[in-house]
Amino acid sequence: LSLKFGDIGDLKGLVIRFLLTTSYYQLSVQNWFSLHRLQLLYNHSIQATFNATRIYAPASYSYHCEHVSSLQRYDALLIPSSANDLSKLWEVTFIDFQIQGFNIQEGHFAYAKDCASFFSPAILMGLVMSLILLLVLAYALHMLIHLKSLDRHYECKASPAYFGQMKDSDIGDEKEPLRSSGNESYELRNQQVCKIYI
């Protein structure tokens, strides 16, 4: 696939050539195309050649990427073919790049396979936060499962040292006279004692 720009400034007959290949993969049971190489030509000679990496899609699809570039800040999908080539003198960047080599119908791109990674920074941050929340939930469940009931059983009864003031009408029922050596004392029948079992 050749894009011919003609004369641009000092560049006579500028052409950008995309060398595409197609292959059949048994695992996916379909043909895939890939961008094998990118060449820059002017003055009727090849001036720079870049090997393309990770630019591929099913043959019935197109390939789309926000940036296809030889620069590291854009993930460098275009690599200079050799150290002796003039490619290192060039910086090539395509913005909103889309290409389809085969099965083009009515001059329109087919459905695009995008170069966006499944593990973008936003997705990775979401996964990390989900993992943290799962760990907190697991810790909370662990604490609930191992939560022990109190081993102390209380029988709530009033202290024997304190007796509330009783009405006169109840005195006959609540106390019974004890007679010993002329002194009159009373025994409280409904004693309430505090017992703690540990």
Automatic annotation (TrEMBL):
It comes from the Eukaryota. Residues 117-154 form the V-type proton ATPase subunit S1/VOA1 transmembrane domain. One of its GO terms (molecular function) is ATPase activator activity. It holds the Pfam family Ac45-VOA1_TM. One of its GO terms (cellular component) is endomembrane system. Residues 1-102 form the V-type proton ATPase subunit S1 luminal domain. GO terms for biological process: regulation of cellular pH. Keywords: Membrane, Transmembrane, Transmembrane helix. The chain crosses the membrane at residues 118-141. It is a single-pass membrane protein. Belongs to the vacuolar ATPase subunit S1 family. This is V-type proton ATPase subunit S1-like. It comes from Dryobates pubescens.
